[in-house]
Design brief:
Elements: H1 6-20, H2 24-37, H3 41-51, H4 53-79
Helix pairs in contact: 1-4, 2-3
Protein name: DUF3263 domain-containing protein
Organism: Nonomuraea longicatena
Length: 81
């Protein structure tokens, strides 16, 4: 990336990772199915972590922030800026 500083480049990488990774809600749904089939203690622990309200709130906030930034970039490109 020409003309991009380190902080901006790392921000792009972080937003790409947030968008590529599944959400905590998706993880929670899959883990719930696994627990219903076979309640492995590690899977239960992961499900409890994914069910933590703070973890869910942080995940939603990160995904929202990344999405807002992507929409902003699309608007700027469409304006020719």
């Amino acid at each position: 990336m020409v003309g991009v500083d380190h902080a901006e480049a790392s921000g792009h990488v972080w937003r790409d990772l947030v968008e590529r990774n599944g959400s905590v809600e998706q993880d929670r749904a899959v883990l719930g199915g696994l627990i219903g089939y076979d309640a492995d203690p590690f899977e239960v622990e992961l499900f409890e972590h994914a069910s933590d309200p703070q973890v869910r709130l942080i995940d939603r906030a990160q995904r929202s922030y990344a999405g807002q930034y992507r929409r902003r970039l699309r608007r700027l490109r469409s304006r020719g800026a």
